[in-house]
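Just curious. Protein, please.
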Amino acid sequence: MKNNVLLVGILLVLAVSSYFVLSDNGNDNDTTRLLVPELQDQINEINGVVISKNDKQVSLSKKDGNWVIAEQQGFIADANNVANLLLELRKMTLKQKKTSNPENYHRLQLDESGEQAATHVTLQIDEKQVANIAFGKKSQTGRGTYVRLNSDKQTWLANGMQSIKLESKDWIVTTILDIDSSLIKSVSYKSEDSDFKLSKSSTDEENFTLENTPDDKQIKSSVNLSDYANGLQKFSISKVIDKTEFVKSDLSVQFEEFSGTQYTLEMTKVDEDYLMNLSLANAESIPEFVKKLQNWTYVIPSYKFDALNKKIDDLLEDKTEARADDNAES
């Protein structure tokens, strides 16, 4: 019994000691002020964001109206993700002073490096630093995050902030195309053992037609040719790589809109990755964002490659007498 009482006493002493180590002893321990006050009237002027922790870094910059990522070959960043980060920083406030002793930073995961390193977010306007915030761990209640500002020794408990993405691939625009099938006039497939084209003559036609269907073949009853026009809807990528890694095309799929714009997808497999290049023709009327998509090689999900990797044998079967008779009567 005495041992239990002694153990409880020791734990209480440790808990109290830890509290005073992490808390500031000043009279203004409880306070509220904005984490980054500059964001109140300069949020739209921010054109550089650098996120770093140990040897990881994500460098975001705004160029020609688009956010781009240096670590992803200068590819386009998801503007919504950047906006969400800036808006979250804008509304964060400092609630309570904590330790100002660097020897105790590791308790809050605010060390400069190592296992307990902070995640730094640097905001810039024309390469001039506006703020440098070090983010540590969340509070035990989960209602705040420990931070340190602009290399100041003082640490704070700030309200808000979700986890900050440290992988550059998590910042890219993952849906690069989203073109409704109703806009598609034709789809052409070329590979080593297949070459065929599906088309419509007008938007009034409900179904596509397989051009040059062999006389002894018919479209499989299970096949809906209109589904083949869906290939550019919500077209997602996994990441962006150096274009020099794309050697040759094993599969080419071209979508042509009724407007005349053509999207040609050249695809191949390298090791375990499915790679894709995109080229455009008659693209004067499409958004500038889409025009810029020609400058990179993409890694696409395997399911996307499989969905596009169609052979003419997938569409056709031998004509049956019943189907032939039906056609003759009509």
Q: What stands out?
A: Confidence is low (pLDDT under 50) at residues 1-21, 24-28. The chain has two domains: 26-166, 175-329. The first strand starts at residue 30 and ends at 34.
